[in-house]
Amino acid sequence: MPSPIDKVRLLASLATEAVGQGISVHREGDSVLRGEKEAIKAKWFLGGKKSVYSFSCRLDEAHHTATFREMIVDRSWGISPPSFKVESYSQSGTTVTSKTVEKAVGGGGTQELGRWRDACSTTVGAAGWIFKHEPTAVP
């Protein structure tokens, strides 16, 4: 196992990868990285809806552990536009992976849960840190 890289370099590496996947990121303090991606959005004259993916990754330099949390929040207002949604979902233990494709009047899009988690896990492991996923916690 390689010797772990420092926290600052790992945060910078994770931020660069997240931006490459279209996720807007910001740091909280010197050990937390948070991000969001609005992927499904639909509006019409009676209302609208959107789907937002968010994550947080907290680094503990003393234990060289990265704690990862993620979730997707769907919001709507007024009368949502008519839509057609296809979801694929898999679960292994407490780890859930899903992909949602939605077509709607006035928009649509694709939202994935687990894609960034897998990339983050690979980066954290390559940096010599331990990746810890907390599936039931809110970011």
Structure write-up:
This protein is an alpha+beta fold and 139 residues long. The protein has one domain. 19% of the residues lie in helices and 55% in strands. Strands 1, 2, 3, 4, 5, 6, 7 and 8 form an eight-stranded mixed sheet that branches. α1 runs antiparallel to α2. The longest helix has 14 residues.
Count of helix runs: 2
Helical proportion, percent range: 10-25%
The topology string of helices and strands comes to HEEEEEEEHE
Distance between the termini: 29 Å
Label the overall shape. elongated
Biggest β-sheet: count, sense, barrel?
8 strands, mixed
Question: Which segments are poorly predicted (pLDDT under 50) over 5 or more consecutive residues?
Answer: none
- Secondary-structure content class: alpha+beta
Tell me, rounded to a whole number, the average pLDDT: 92
Task: Note the quaternary state here.
Answer: single chain
Can you tell me the number of structural domains? 1
Count of beta strands: 8
Q: What is the CA-atom radius of gyration, in angstroms?
A: 17 Å
Strand content: over 45%
List its traits.
139 residues, alpha+beta, 2 helices, 8 strands, 19% helix
SSE order and pairing:
Elements: H1 7-20, E1 24-28, E2 32-44, E3 47-60, E4 65-78, E5 83-92, E6 95-104, E7 107-113, H2 115-126, E8 130-133
Parallel strand pairs: 4-8
Antiparallel strand pairs: 1-2, 2-3, 2-7, 3-4, 5-6, 6-7
